[in-house]
Every structure is written in structure tokens, then in C-alpha cells.
Amino acid sequence: MDNLNLLLQGFATAAHPEYLAFAFIGVILGTAVGVLPGIGPSMTVALLLPLTYALDPTAALITFAGIYYGGMYGGSTTSILLNTPGEASSMITALEGNKMAKRGKGAAALATAAIGSFVAGTLATAALTFLAPVAADLAVKLGPVEKVALMVLAFTTVGALLGRSVSRGLAALGVGMFIGLMGVDGMSGQMRFTFGVPVLNDGIDVVVVAVALFAVGEALYVGAQLRRGPQQLVPVTRGWRTWMTREDWRRSWKPWLRGTAIGFPIGTLPAGGAEVGTFLSYSAERKLARGKAKEEFGHGAIEGVAGPEAANNASAAGVLVPLLTLGIPTSATAAVILVALQHYNIQPGPLLFKDHGDLVWPLVASLYIGNVLLLVLNLPLVGLWVKVLQIPRHYLYAGILLFAALGAFAVHFSPQDVIVLLVLGILGFFMRRYGYPVAPMVVGLILGPIFERQLRSALQIAQGDWLTLVQSPFAIVVYVALLLALGGSVLLRRKEDDLEHELVEAAR
Description:
about 500 residues, mainly alpha, two-stranded antiparallel sheet
């Protein structure tokens, strides 16, 4: 009941006309950027992150919540009409949705994706409202040993699951931790990993790294692969009021609910990630399909859009649970959100709801508001987003590079940050070129210094006895869960590979 009262207070704040305007601006910006080809939610929030720095914390977080959900919504339009998923979790939407569009059912695909995202986002945000404070109360009781175990779980699972190669994921994680530890050692006061370069003495700002890897690296990578000729955009000719037939509604509502039930729990796990949830949702819908729906799978089944899109957006809310209660990002987008919170000296963790309740509850309330605004805006304005998709890519990515440079410069108003941005952007390009995932690098960058502090505290309390790290019952449970997660990841990879093989065979 207390959580409900606090949520109502958050609504009272978020419903203020000024904050409603910021929420509206956030969803418009998030959707407008997220709908552009090849741009996923993580790149959207990283690119627009510096825009919130001129606002007070409440306004900035409300705007950022709109950008976050807007970026999630925008990706479905690109996937369906251009067959260009912004990230791995949109692959299934692109597969079935684009085939629906080519069959003249693009309007229905867009509608079921938008409505399913709204349903999943609302239900998952409600679960977040009541689950996150409970998890925070439990997390307060954790000591340094338990937190070290959680960090090891996050490091290993994120490095192993985000990317097709475990070794490359862990290598990216190690590079991120190395960058995160640059600068002054907090205990000894000595410089480390700076190579005598003065600009590295204070470390590298996380915002610069996030924008460099997600925006600059992606823009350079896509620019290097640009194809000549116009993009194959599938037109949407029907009015939005007649998009979904009664049959489409009948076939969509159950996948919406099942996708939510699959996506949210997976998003809350340190081994989560929207990609896993969307594949599981698609696999479940394919197995449950009967009759006409079964025949259409692989050729444009509406269930193959409704379920994965719901799972994708439910995961988006689910990742906020470990982020807000433990300070652990489980996805690339969550890592960028953590950067935004840290800019205002807000460290997510067990005490967040108590120390910064005046900011957190309006943020949660704005997720509900942003979800409604997105549904109201996305359906009527899809014609506008279709026109945005027609922007030539060389203009598009040149603009992204310009805004990324301005954003990096605005962090400290230092030209040196722009140079660091370019260097790390080139690193991000080569990581994509050779198959190294970017998300583990950002997670390592953020959690590396926190892990170091907790590990040192645990060893100081135990007077240097390393066995203390495996003597806590909670830590033992976490390490057993880690082994199970790694074993499960192997099975999931095999299942995904089998599913991709079946889809390729069906497409031939």
C-alpha cells in the first residue's frame, strides 16, 4: 500500500504541465531517432543523453524515460518497413513483420507491434512498481561479499550472453574494466593506466565512452557498408483506423500477454537481455500456432510480431529492476541509463528508493505516462515516421556524428573529449567489424570501479582471507546460479542456432 501511495505522489509530480511537456518531447525525440534505420534503443538514448543535462534532475529523468520508451517503440517501424533491425532483439520483428508488409499487411504488423508494446510496457511497469522496492529492501542486507558475488554473476553472464562468442564478450568486458580503472587509484592516490597522457589522469567520462561506442562506432560501421541506390521501403497505404481486423485482434492478444510473461522475468535477470526473451517468445508462439497461423510462420505470421515485440518491451521495464535496486545494468540500454543517473550523482542501489524517492517515483510514473503518449502518437503519426525513413543514409549518419561530437564537447566543454570520442569511436567500429560486442565493454566500464571497491572492502574486513568470498550462503547460491546460467546459455545458443537454421531453410 505504501508503494501505491508513493506512486500516486510520483504521478502528482509527473502530471505537472511542465513535466508532461518534457515527457512529450522525450517520446517524440526517442521515436524520431529510434525509427531511423539501423539505430537501436541503446544508440538512441546514448545520442540524446547530453540533451538532458541542461534540465533539473526530475525533468531530465522524465525526459529520459520518454526517450527510452520512444526508442524501443521506434525500432519496430524500421524493422517492419525496411527489414533493418536496430539491434539483435528486433531480428524476429524484422523477419515476420517485413514479410507481412510485403504481403500488404504492413499496417497490421505496425499496429500489433505498437499495441503489444503498450500492453507489455504497462504490465511490466506495474510489475516494476511493486517488485523493485521489495528487491531494494532485500538488497540493503547485502554486504561486500554478497555484492562481489553479484558483480561476478553480472560480469560473467553479460560477457558470455551478449554476443555470439563467449571469449569475445569477456574480452570486451575486460577492456571496459581497464578503461574504467584509468586515472587516480582511490586508495593509494597513484596514477594507473594513463600511459603518461595528462588527459587520462581524471579517467574517461562514461558519457563520452557511451556516445563513442554506440553512436560514433555504429555510424562509422554502417557508413562503411552503405549500399548505393534507394532503400527498399514498403509503403503503408491503409488508414491507421482500419489497420487491424477482428481476426488480427483475436490472434494478437494472447501473444501480447505471453510475450509480457516471458520478457519481464528475463529482463530482471543479470543473465537477461531482450534478445533471449524475443527468441523464446517467438519459439513459444511458433509451437502454439495452429491451422492458418502455423502455415504463415516464416511467411509473415502476426503472432511472430505480437509476441516478440511484447517480450522486447517487457524486458525494457524488467532491466530497470536490477538497475535501480542493485546498480547492475543487464543490457546496453540499461548501461546508458546508469550513466544518466550517475551524471546527477545518483547511484542506483539498495538505498535509491529511500534516498532519492522524490526522483525515482516520478520516473516510474513517467513510464506509465510515456507509454500512453507513445500509443496515442505512434498510430496517427506513422505516416510521418515513414517519411523520416526516406532520409538518405549518408546525410543521416553525418548528422549523427555531428551531434555525437557536440554532445561529447558539452560534457566538460573540452576539445580533448572530442578527440577521445573519435579514438573510442574507431575502437567501436573495429569491435563491430570483428564481432566483439559493445555492451559488455560499457558494463565493465561502469561496474569495474564499483567491483574493485567492494572487493577491497570484503578483503579488508577478512584481513586478506580470499576464502571469505565463498563462505557466505548468499554468495554460494549466486555462484551456483552462475553455473546454471552458463549451462542454460549454451542450451539457449543451440536453440537460437536451430531456430535460425529453420528460418533460413523456410526462406529458401
